[in-house]
Design goal:
The chain has 241 residues and is of the alpha/beta class. It contains nine helices and seven strands.
């Protein structure tokens, strides 16, 4: 190694350190720029000793509309063979396996969640059933951590109201979608005088507010799908730049 190369080593190390700090600090920086809209809403998912089985019973049960109508939802979102879809807030994997079968071996399903134990369950089930097109991604409160232009569709089912930092999350989703990619949003109808007290206290806003936030993030509404009673289903498309 010549003397010029030796002089470059400390400089290179400094640049590597700076790059790593920028990467590690990105999520924290995003959070500092945006205040949480619902502090603590995800605390119960992050507690030590979380029992995955209890959440399976809660999420994958008869009587929960998005479970009972899962095949109608699958049909409505128009998922095609070979597409890549991100299941953001995948939970215990209610829809992940269905998406896997729909897109086929040439497609891809990215199951995103902030709960490592949920993702472990999804991968265990994928291995048990031979679904090799499923990948898991540990997201954060500020980012899906999906690669840029990696998916055709992003599916968000009863999860958007859990976004503490919706602007940051939507920016992450916008970046992850390919040109013309879509968001499929499913969330609880929240209507004063009609919705239950639990919905009114748990879900911070209704369809109008959530849709406005998505539109402001660089999307356009494609259609609302009247297939559910307690939840609304809306498709949005990423605007062309």
């Amino acid at each position: 190694m010549n003397s010029a190369s030796l002089h470059c080593v400390p400089s290179l190390n400094r640049w590597l350190a700076i790059c790593l700090l920028l990467l590690w600090g990105h999520d924290s920086w995003a959070a500092e720029q945006e205040q949480s809209v619902n502090p603590g809403i995800n605390d119960n998912f992050l507690e030590a000793g979380l029992e995955v089985g209890q959440w399976v019973e809660r999420f994958e049960r008869e009587g929960r509309e998005v479970y009972d109508q899962r095949m109608a939802v699958l049909e409505a979102i128009d998922l095609k063979t070979g597409e890549a879809i991100a299941d953001v807030g995948a939970g215990t994997g209610l829809y992940t396996g269905l998406f896997s079968d729909k897109v086929g071996p040439q497609g891809k399903v990215m199951a995103v969640d902030i709960v490592p134990l949920f993702l472990s369950r999804i991968m265990d089930r994928a291995k048990e059933t031979g679904r090799k097109n499923i990948q898991t991604v540990l997201g954060s409160g500020q980012s899906t951590r999906l690669p840029a232009a990696s998916v055709d569709k992003v599916f968000i089912c009863d999860t958007y109201h859990h976004f503490e930092y919706p602007k940051s999350m939507l920016a992450s989703i916008h970046q992850a979608l390919k040109p013309g990619g879509e968001i499929i949003l499913i969330d609880f109808k929240r209507e004063e005088g009609t919705s239950s007290e639990w919905i009114l206290s748990h879900v911070r806003a209704g369809q109008e507010v959530f849709s406005a936030e998505i539109l402001a993030a660089g999307f356009e509404e494609v259609t609302a799908l009247p297939i559910l009673k307690d939840n609304y289903v809306v498709r949005f498309r990423k605007k062309s730049s």
